Amino acid sequence: MSSPDKVFDALASTTRRKILAYLRDRPLHAGAIAARFDMSAPAVSKHLSILEGAGLIWKRREGQFVLYGMDQGNLAGHLWAFMQEVCPPSRTLRREVRAEHEAGEGQPPEARRAE
Amino acid sequence: MSSPDKVFDALASTTRRKILAYLRDRPLHAGAIAARFDMSAPAVSKHLSILEGAGLIWKRREGQFVLYGMDQGNLAGHLWAFMQEVCPPSRTLRREVRAEHEAGEGQPPEARRAE
DNA sequence: TAATGAATTAACTGATTAGCTAAAAGGTGT
DNA sequence: ACACCTTTTAGCTAATCAGTTAATTCATTA
């Protein structure tokens, strides 16, 4: 499973998105996270391992506890890459870029787009 | 199912993300989309209806064909809202905001965080 | 109206997923 | 070693999902 696949898969669960929101400001122990959900600790643990596998959070053992925290850069990076792939630039920006290209080289802009 | 739920659910499939990428530059007929995948037309049709239900694409009948196109604003809007919810602002921005709060009211910033 | 083509809906199947409980693993302290 | 606590793994079940083929809907054209 490719990395973006794992990321979008991880984000597809409301529970997991909530976990990310909880971790937004500070790391939390596994127990503290589980306490906020109406489900068993093993269920939450599985969600955490999916988030970790997607590279969205890190974990560190601290004595008998396990601390989890966000990997903010990775989440932002993946979403950003996706936006670039799927959302075209605004019309005015696109016009600017085309003008630059046509001034500088003989290639039409279509020839440079990823296929 | 809430709207962001539908959006992330829609994005969780590689096939559906590919469809969005195909629609990035121009609308396409259902058949033209299905032709790019190694699966039956009904399967693709189901993917399209999930994307439509999430508000990520629109559809319009054109004679016997059905044209599909992206709803770029919606996709960008949802991802942006999510980023805001989950990715904290930069440290310096956060310091600024805290300074404002502490100047204005007696509550520490923690008391204002979602529980 | 009948025939054809495009797309969707219906009905079904196999695989995956989310949850549970019970058991194990890892760490602390007596 | 033992008891205790936190967390994860194993094994299971019910529900959901992605795909299939067959049948239906909608539009066109003879």
Automatic annotation (TrEMBL), chains A, B:
Task: Tell me what this protein is called.
Answer: ArsR family transcriptional regulator
Q: Which UniProt keywords apply?
A: DNA-binding, Transcription, Transcription regulation
- HTH arsR-type domain mapped to chain residues: 1-94
A Pfam family of this chain:
HTH_5
Gene Ontology terms, MF aspect = DNA binding; DNA-binding transcription factor activity
Q: Which InterPro entries match?
A: ArsR-like_HTH, HTH_ArsR_DNA-bd_dom, HTH_MetalResp_TranReg, WH-like_DNA-bd_sf, WH_DNA-bd_sf
Region Disordered: start-end pairs:
94-115
Q: Which domain of life is it from?
A: Bacteria
